[in-house]
Amino acid sequence: MLKLQARLVMKRFGIPSYLLDYNSAWNPLLTTGLASPEVCKSEIIGGIFRDPLRRGKKGMIDVKVLEKYGARRLELKKDEFIFYEGDEALYYFQVMSGSVKMVTNSSQGQEFIQGIFGANTSFGEPPLFSGFNYPSGAVALEPSVLMRLPKEKFFQLLKENFDIHLKLDQVLCQRLKYKSLVLSEISFSDPEHRIMTLLNYLKKEGSNINKSDKYQVPFTRQQIADMTGLRVETVIRAVKKLEDDGKLKIVGHKIQL
Predict the structure, then answer these.
(1) Tens of each residue's pLDDT in the chain, 257 residues
(2) Which residues contact 253 (CB under 8 A, 6 or more apart)?
(3) CATH class of the domain at 189-256
(4) What is the pTM of this model?
(5) Which residue from 106, 164, 202, 208 has the fewest beta carbons nearer than 10 Å?
């Protein structure tokens, strides 16, 4: 019954069902995690956007553990690519400082940001588990330092550290929820609704934000456009309209809620 429920969820989000096969690194964690709302809920409550958009230390693998299994530091310059769309997935990556964005480009050249990953986050794991090439590229948004662990060593780490394995399963729940939200908003909503949905979630899931505090959005208009599938000109007009409607404020060119 659990496996059937998990397969239905995976089908909904487009995850290959063979991840549940006996030899899969995600079996039985996906079977239990995807079929159990409680497993996902514990992490989702901590922040739907914290994984795609700068999650905290909770999901980070300890640096000493990574080094024990052979991880090496990788220093990047701003705009330097870690991997390109279509590259083979050979490493586990974890951000130590700086930030990285994963991007997909349309045939018209429009960039869509799949996620922005700051310090203490990892990215690009799904291709490691299921054996497909990267569907998106990853590039440093600023000078950054990563830890890079070879695929074989990463699997060994997971096999020998079940608690880390389980945390990654919870991270996957967050990402599935985020993708579901983004796909729904892009498919059915007008620009103002898309933007407000994104901003409200960012505010709700921001660290140490009280209801009475003003939340300053940490992203540019261009980044908001790339996260919502809109053109930057559309975002600028929509944000101005939202300000006129009293749904947000612009303070020093920054958006506040």
Answers:
(1) 444 544 554 444 444 443 344 333 333 333 334 333 333 333 322 222 333 334 445 557 999 999 999 999 999 999 999 999 999 999 999 999 999 999 888 777 777 888 888 888 899 998 998 899 999 999 999 999 999 999 999 999 999 999 998 888 887 787 777 667 666 766 667 899 889 888 887 787 654 455 557 888 888 999 888 888 788 999 999 999 999 999 999 998 899 98
(2) none
(3) mainly alpha
(4) 0.63
(5) 208
Do the domains 2-185 and 189-256 sit in the same CATH topology, yes or no? no
Check if the beta carbon of residue 97 is closer than 8 Å to that of residue 30: no
Distance of CA 87 to the CA centre of its chain: 19
73 vs 154: CA distance, rounded Å: 15
Nearest partner of 166 among 64, 69, 38, judged by Cα:
38
Q: Which two tokens stand for residue 183?
A: 């796909």
Sorted by where each begins, the domain ranges of the chain are 2-185, 189-256
Tokens of 234: 């559309």
Q: Is the dihedral of CA 110, 119, 168, 147 positive or negative?
A: positive
The answer to whether 190 and 233 are in contact (CB under 8 A) is no
C-beta atoms surrounding 245 within 10 Å? 10
Instruction: Identify which of 181, 170, 156 has the alpha carbon closest to the alpha carbon of residue 30.
Output: 170
DSSP 138-164: EEESSSEEEEEEEHHHHHHHHHH-HHH
Q: What is the CATH number of domain 2-185?
A: 2.60.120.10
Exposure string of 127-140, with b = 16+ CB inside 10 Å and e = fewer, is bbbeeeebebbbbb
